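## retry 2 of 3
previous attempt timed out at serialization; input unchanged, resubmitting
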Amino acid sequence: MFASMSRLYSNSDKPYLDYRTAEKCFITAFDAADYTRSCVAIDAKVGTIGVGIKTFVDTPFQKIAEFDEKSHVLNGDPEHDARAIAVLRNERMELARDAYGITDFIYHYILRTKGQMSIHEEPMLFIDIDRIRIIKARKQNFDFTDGHCTYRFSRSKSTLYKKFDWSDPLAFIGVAILDDIIDQLEATFGVINMEEPIPEIAESVILPLFSTRGGRHVPERSGLNQWNAKGRPRDPNEVYIPLPVSIKKKHEDFFPERKVHFSLVLPDGQSLDASVCQDNGKAIMSNPNSDLGRWILRTVLKLEPRELVTIDKLDDLGIDAVVFTKYEDHYKIDFTYIGDGRDEEDDGL
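## retry succeeded, writing output
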């Protein structure tokens, strides 16, 4: 249905299907959990299966990961760099596996060719680092394989591509592209009543897990490293999520008042008791405090007790902020990545 409206966007005989539309169709059809706005290796979850959703025309190499902040781990040698990128990619898949309760990964993708689309699925595999072999090296990119899949890394874009195999489609769908789509839309919907109320949507706020004072870093004695603060003895899982004053003021009704407890649902479905705490309500903690720390520090970041959280560790995993989404009777927390695009004086979303 969406592809038949291709003339809204393109004059090509190959159907147009926006990747956001493909994601929405999949999530709706399979009643899947939606992680399309999360900075993780999956777009959706069906049961315990993590799904990467893609749509593209017949170009085999497609983007699967970006590593904008990690150019310093590369030295220009293709074999070294292929292994370094493979480690980072695998760590991001491990994060999705452990934090989101995933037992298996697949790609689900739509290939668009002249007059039709085909549906494909294939495993999303960890890269076998011990079997990496360089196929071809160029100045701006290089191809490598691990014996299971073929990859291409673009140095200029810091982007990893994978070669997808569309030799065994699950199904074909013929697409009749409508040339009179504007007329049909007008006939179907008529004139839009601009006075109709806009439906309420869930509000979200982004909270950075780092500080920018003195350079972008994770403070050693606060936030995710609160367990390392001076003074009283502290549990090694003691953390809090910083709530900047500017965000709190702009969204003063988003979080409950200080010490008012609320249900916080994690990406894997687990629910924690949480509240706004500390002087001036500058922190979000769980009750007991160690529950949130145990999940972030041990399950997600895989740190040893009393090992500091660093900005390099967050960049490796492609996460440096959390998104709180407010619902009628609970909040949800998820990860995102903002890099240098936001500082402590910004106002969230």
